[in-house]
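Students often ask why we bother encoding 3D structure as a string. The short answer is that it lets us treat folding as translation between two languages. Here is a chain of 658 residues written in the first language.
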Amino acid sequence: MKSLWSDKEAKQFKGDLGKRVYTSRLLGANPELVLHGGGNTSVKVREKDFFGDPVEVLYVKGSGWDLGTIEAPGFAPVRMDALLKMAELKELSDSEMVKQQRAAMLDPGAPNPSIEAILHAVIPQKFVDHTHANAVVALTNHKNGRQTIEEVYGDRMVVTPYVMPGFILALEVAKALKKVDPYAIDGLILMNHGIFTFHDDPKRSYELMIEHVTRAEKFLAGKCGKKFSLPKAKPEEDLAGLAEIRNKVSQLRGVPVIAKLDQSPEAVGFSSRKDVASLATRGPLTPDHTIRTKRVPAVIGKDIEKSLDKFAADYTKYFEKNAKGETMLTPDPRWVVWPGKGVISFGATEKEAGVIQDIVTHTWRTIQLTEEAFEGGWKALPAGKLFEIEYWELEQAKLKKGGSAPTHQGKVAIVTGSAAGIGFACAETLAEQGAKVIGLDLSPDIGEQMAKFGGIGKVVNLTDDAATLAAIEDTVRDFGGIDIVVSNAGIFTAGAYLPDMEQTNWDKSMAVNLTSHQKLLKYTIPYLKKGTGEPAIVLVGSRNVNAPGAGAASYSCAKAGLTQLCRVAALELAPDGVRCNIIHPDAVFDTKLWTPENLKRSAERYGMTVEEYKTRNLMKTEIKSKDVGRMVAAMASPLFGKTTGAQIPVDGGNDRVI
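And here it is in the second language, the structure alphabet:
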């Protein structure tokens, strides 16, 4: 572990709070120390309150902030006298502690102080740093952990047994510090939890953390030996199985989830260990992780559904054994070990799945090091202790706040022809409603366009079978499945009467406007059948289906064929719970096809102004791409959950159609 301190950079951060921001970011920059909101830091300062009176203040990391990106407003200013008075109490509930800490803040607009604010206050040094360093936790999580810590650190660190974070931990630390000269030690080791270092100088406090974590790393390396490396293996790919796992986990959770499959050689190597079912299910790296990952993962056997049902049943038994009036969480695993294929992490959003994947990766790496280094191997806290964290009253309080998720959160959507116009509007609207959108288009702009709302763009010629299939398989590989398909790609072929039409005109329209849609369905249907949240297909047709015009045979016939394809797909897929509907837009002029010149020319042909031409429907309203996008998103939602095989016009009312 290397110190990242730079005197030049440090000078840019003014004052004690500025230096606190700087060293906090240094800690947060290293995932071996801090992961996703973990760890906390503080600084004690003397400043004037609102009335100009001098006051001792603890600036401690606020809830919701990440050390890697924290800024000065991310530190909550709390009066030291209040924190030290709380440390003298014999008992204090966590919810009351949070309330009283907030009442003692100088700035009511600041975030809630860390739950370990009292602990930071009882440490007399000015700067306090706390991390859940992997190497240090590895030294504590085996049967002789206390002995190992004393061997590595001697009397330079005070060691405390594991207790719940918050008030109880603060009392334990205060008691331990009374037995020593706090200025004669470098920090604290909290068994099964992490490490604190502290000093009156910010650089020294930070570098003590680096020094002591390095001691742990070197000790582990010495125990494992120079020849040791994590096992590696090549994955056995099974995308259908991945979609099935995601589907079952979504059922257990009650909402669609994103699945992140780690097929790296080391992840597959871990999943392929003969002892993986035992090793992976002994408990997490630190108790704090249970809030995100639960106590243990599921291990998939030959029967996917049976394996996940067993996990749910075991989780229910675990809850019933330890519960004292708490509300049970959903019985789904937050990560899965899939022997021979890798490790899967799940989240209601891509971000949540990514956070869990990061934590899980550090977990399976570290537990293998501990297993190799120490007799008896990896040993986490007992299930009852972990239950206390997973069902902490502060976490239970969050459940009562409720709130509804976006309509399409956790769903994976493919939208074709989405670089502009209607396709882009469909993709954007689905993303706004929570879906992870993958856009396919011939345009090289597709990547940039999808990135505007967090989607992924792939340049694909949908008449190319191999390219289309590859894009679909990549989607499943990256997110676990497919739930929504919006088949929008198309071209408007040049108008020509039948006797004058070139055959290439007809052939191209059929290839793009009909056959490419049929191929897309062929390749996505196997995954849609394993989709979540009422999987749906929405095809984009045209008003021309029900009100064709002379000279538009190639376009109108292809769209009519697409409508018939929709009806057949609805008949075939209904038994599998997959809906297929088609939308018929008309006169959508806010696309690249309609330049101001084109609009003017068309309006003049009808003897209208441009505004009259754009609103030439019964409702005298302009139809925009976003209107179509909203309807498509609705058709893919539970709002249309009982509808399949339908044709929905979005045209403001067309007298010929009606």
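Translate back mentally: The domain at 7-224 is CATH 3.40.225.10 (L-fuculose-1-phosphate Aldolase). Keep this in mind for the problem set.
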